[in-house]
Amino acid sequence: MVCLPSTPYALVVKAKPTNTSLPHKFRVEVDEMFHDSAIVEIERLDSTSGWEWMSLTFQFTIYTSDEIGDDWYRPGNGYLYKLLPDKTIHSPARDACEELGGWLIIYGEIDHTVRVNITSQYAKLEVNSNRYWIGLTDKDKEGEWVWDDWTP
């Protein structure tokens, strides 16, 4: 149980099999947040591949308005965005995002208008010649691409 002084500004939830050798993928969506609880929907995306039950690992990241500085972009879609202007390679970029309780952008979550606003807001910084890391990797298995939120 987590006790908070007010309803969180945002809640992000990830799910994956506890046994990481299992290839199952999940879609996790926060439907509603309350002061002391949340309704979270979990959908198994590969339901045709057996296993009637399995142990799952969840990662919850809670954002309160007290933690969010002016350098975060808040488009009102339930997500927060922040540009980290240091030039780097994929793994350190991902690690820096995780230290802030987030992950690299996953394009399934971001609509065109938000993408344009983020890009135009930060374009003047000329970060990596306007190239940005996204949260897509095949580090666990060559050629098998997954997003940082563990979805295929």
TrEMBL record:
InterPro entries, alphabetized: C-type_lectin-like (IPR001304), C-type_lectin-like/link_sf (IPR016186), CTDL_fold (IPR016187)
Entries under Gene3D superfamilies matching the protein: Mannose-Binding Protein A, subunit A
Domain C-type lectin residues, every copy: 93-150
Source taxon at top rank: Eukaryota
Protein name: C-type lectin domain-containing protein
Species: Ciona intestinalis (Transparent sea squirt)
